[in-house]
Amino acid sequence: MIAYSDWKHDDVFEGVTEDGKSVTFDADSAHKHGPSPMQAVLMALCCCTSVDVVSILKKKRQKLTGLRVTATATQDLLP
Protein backbone atom coordinates (compact mmCIF):
# COMPACT_ATOMS: atom_id res chain seq x y z
CA MET A 1 0.00 0.00 0.00
CA ILE A 2 1.39 3.38 -0.98
CA ALA A 3 0.06 6.86 -0.27
CA TYR A 4 1.40 10.39 -0.44
CA SER A 5 0.31 13.91 0.38
CA ASP A 6 0.64 17.12 -1.58
CA TRP A 7 0.52 20.59 -0.11
CA LYS A 8 -2.15 22.52 -1.99
CA HIS A 9 -2.19 25.98 -0.36
CA ASP A 10 -2.17 27.57 3.08
CA ASP A 11 -2.92 24.72 5.53
CA VAL A 12 -4.67 22.52 2.95
CA PHE A 13 -3.20 19.17 1.89
CA GLU A 14 -4.39 16.38 -0.35
CA GLY A 15 -3.77 12.75 0.58
CA VAL A 16 -3.70 10.38 -2.38
CA THR A 17 -3.65 6.57 -2.55
CA GLU A 18 -1.70 4.61 -5.13
CA ASP A 19 -4.90 3.96 -7.07
CA GLY A 20 -5.77 7.66 -7.25
CA LYS A 21 -8.34 8.09 -4.49
CA SER A 22 -7.90 11.38 -2.67
CA VAL A 23 -8.97 13.16 0.51
CA THR A 24 -8.53 16.84 1.26
CA PHE A 25 -7.18 17.64 4.72
CA ASP A 26 -7.30 21.05 6.36
CA ALA A 27 -4.90 21.79 9.20
CA ASP A 28 -6.38 25.27 9.74
CA SER A 29 -8.44 25.61 12.91
CA ALA A 30 -11.67 26.27 10.93
CA HIS A 31 -11.32 23.08 8.80
CA LYS A 32 -13.32 24.63 5.92
CA HIS A 33 -11.84 22.32 3.25
CA GLY A 34 -11.98 18.99 5.06
CA PRO A 35 -11.04 17.21 8.27
CA SER A 36 -7.74 17.81 9.98
CA PRO A 37 -5.21 14.97 9.68
CA MET A 38 -5.85 14.06 13.33
CA GLN A 39 -9.62 13.99 12.77
CA ALA A 40 -9.05 11.72 9.76
CA VAL A 41 -6.98 9.31 11.86
CA LEU A 42 -9.77 9.16 14.46
CA MET A 43 -12.40 8.59 11.74
CA ALA A 44 -10.23 5.85 10.21
CA LEU A 45 -10.00 4.13 13.61
CA CYS A 46 -13.80 4.13 13.88
CA CYS A 47 -14.18 2.81 10.32
CA CYS A 48 -11.62 0.03 10.83
CA THR A 49 -13.47 -1.06 13.96
CA SER A 50 -16.78 -0.97 12.08
CA VAL A 51 -15.38 -3.14 9.27
CA ASP A 52 -14.30 -5.76 11.80
CA VAL A 53 -17.65 -5.77 13.62
CA VAL A 54 -19.67 -6.03 10.39
CA SER A 55 -17.42 -8.83 9.12
CA ILE A 56 -17.82 -10.82 12.33
CA LEU A 57 -21.59 -10.36 12.37
CA LYS A 58 -21.89 -11.42 8.72
CA LYS A 59 -19.87 -14.59 9.39
CA LYS A 60 -22.19 -15.38 12.28
CA ARG A 61 -25.20 -14.69 10.02
CA GLN A 62 -26.46 -12.01 12.37
CA LYS A 63 -28.87 -9.38 11.10
CA LEU A 64 -27.44 -5.87 11.19
CA THR A 65 -29.73 -2.84 11.00
CA GLY A 66 -27.26 -0.14 11.94
CA LEU A 67 -23.89 0.52 13.49
CA ARG A 68 -22.14 3.60 14.79
CA VAL A 69 -18.69 3.50 16.35
CA THR A 70 -17.72 6.60 18.31
CA ALA A 71 -14.30 7.59 19.60
CA THR A 72 -13.21 10.54 21.68
CA ALA A 73 -9.64 11.81 21.66
CA THR A 74 -7.67 14.64 23.12
CA GLN A 75 -4.52 16.09 21.67
CA ASP A 76 -1.76 17.28 23.94
CA LEU A 77 -0.32 20.58 22.83
CA LEU A 78 3.41 20.95 23.06
CA PRO A 79 4.58 23.53 25.59
Can you tell me about this structure?
- The protein is an alpha+beta fold.
- Helices cover 29% and strands 23% of the residues.
- The protein is built from 1 helix and 3 strands; from the N terminus they run E-E-E-H.
- The radius of gyration is 16 Å and the shape is extended.
- The chain starts with a strand and ends in a 20-residue tail after the last helix.
- The model has no long low-confidence stretch (mean pLDDT 94).
* Mean pLDDT value: 94
How far the N terminus sits from the C terminus, by CA atoms, comes to: 35 Å
> Number of DSSP helices?
1
Shape assignment: extended
Largest sheet: 3 strands, antiparallel
In helices, the fraction of residues equals 25-40%
If strands are numbered along the chain, what order do they take across the biggest sheet? 1-2-3
Number of strands: 3
The chain-level structural class is: alpha+beta
Radius of gyration: 16 Å
SSE order, one letter for each helix or strand? EEEH
The percentage of residues in β strands lies in 15-25%
Q: Give start-end ranges of low-pLDDT stretches.
A: none
